[in-house]
Amino acid sequence: xxxxxxxxxxxxxxxxxxxxxxxxxxxxxxxxxxxxxxxxxxxxxxxxxxxxxxxxxxxxxxxxxxxxxxxxxxxxxxxxxxxxxxxxxxxxxxxxxxxxxxxxxxxxxxxxxxxxxxxxxxxxxxxxxxxxxxxxxxxxxxxxxxxxxxxxxxxxxxxxxxxxxxxxxxxxxxxxxxxxxxxxxxxxxxxxxxxxxxxxxxxxxxxxxxxxxxxxxxxxxxxxxxxxxxxxxxxxxxxxxxxxxxxxxxxxxxxxxxxxxxxxxxxxxxxxxxxxxxxxxxxxxxxxxxxxxxxxxxxxxxxxxxxxxxxxxxxxxxxxxxxxxxxxxxxxxxxxxxxxxxxxxxxxxxxxxxxxx
Length: 357
Ligand SMILES: Cc1cc2nc3c(=O)[nH]c(=O)nc-3n(C[C@H](O)[C@H](O)[C@H](O)COP(=O)(O)OP(=O)(O)OC[C@H]3O[C@@H](n4cnc5c(N)ncnc54)[C@H](O)[C@@H]3O)c2cc1C
Prior knowledge:
Strand 5 (122-128) and strand 6 form a beta hairpin. Helix content is 27%, strand content 24%. The chain has nine helices and 16 strands. The longest helix has 16 residues, at 33-48. Among the domains are: 26-82, no CATH class; 108-159 and 298-346, FAD/NAD(P)-binding domain, CATH 3.50.50. Bound molecules: flavin-adenine dinucleotide.
């Protein structure tokens, strides 16, 4: 992530276009003594182990930093990292896409990869429809689609899917909050147009017929973080009767995975935003959407090579935190794909870590 930050800092110059990058800091609010203890522990590790500029703020300092944050809302302090930043996902991914085309990448749209072809312990290509694209190196970076592809190639990854809802307000013309703010339930970021994008911590786990497959891997995660996912036992039924569910209005076209935002999460987002920032409470929720978080049991990404299948690289399972570190993940993969060593130690992210247990 630290490596990614260095890339983000120079990205607009490198790509020659604006991606909404702003180094506005990251503020994690504390609402109790227990929150403070947990954040102090993070802060100490951030400074001592990683040399970051993370510091603790008192309640008064927190309110001074973000004047729109109302007093009397239970904020007892915060952890603040001034060097952290934000960018616009749609602009950034488009900019990378254009830069890849400019560098000679060929792109094939419309049909999924159905199989990673291997022979004699080596990757030989990918199958799309009835065509085989030959390649000596294949990077599997298919988000929530990765585990299914890799399973067919012989690597079992206990990747699961959480449906997470996001709400966005109309733009606030006169109020600016440069920092990303984490509240009790939400993560709040003001976008380049002045609107607030509010992600709700936690999401829906839509039960599937093969949900049993990875159950054992998630026992410990569920115990330590029971609110991370609400199990929707009726999801298989809802898939059969899609007309029976109601979704809030959205101005985004549905993605292929057809992830629905949950109206009650949108309301959760609106309520906490208005509670923390009453001066912004009049901003209407303009739209909402949902995305699939491809999660791993240890909630850290899978990045690296696969034992026994030479030429196969994996970058997936970012567990809801793939946009920020994305540029560095790309850098690591490009080095590995060129047959060089990773510029940072990625051994703890190995795709093989689940095979060994
Ligand atoms: C609601 C929400 C909020 C988030 N907030 C943050 C945040 O604040 N900060 C942060 O850092 N991250 C955040 N994330 C996480 C971040 O968006 C992801 O970690 C990141 O997008 C993962 O990138 P990826 O390239 O691995 O996968 P994706 O972005 O999912 O890309 C994978 C691509 O592969 C394609 N694909 C899948 N299967 C196949 C196939 N068989 N053949 C061909 N193509 C295929 C998919 O269609 C997709 O286009 C959030 C995610 C969600 C859902």
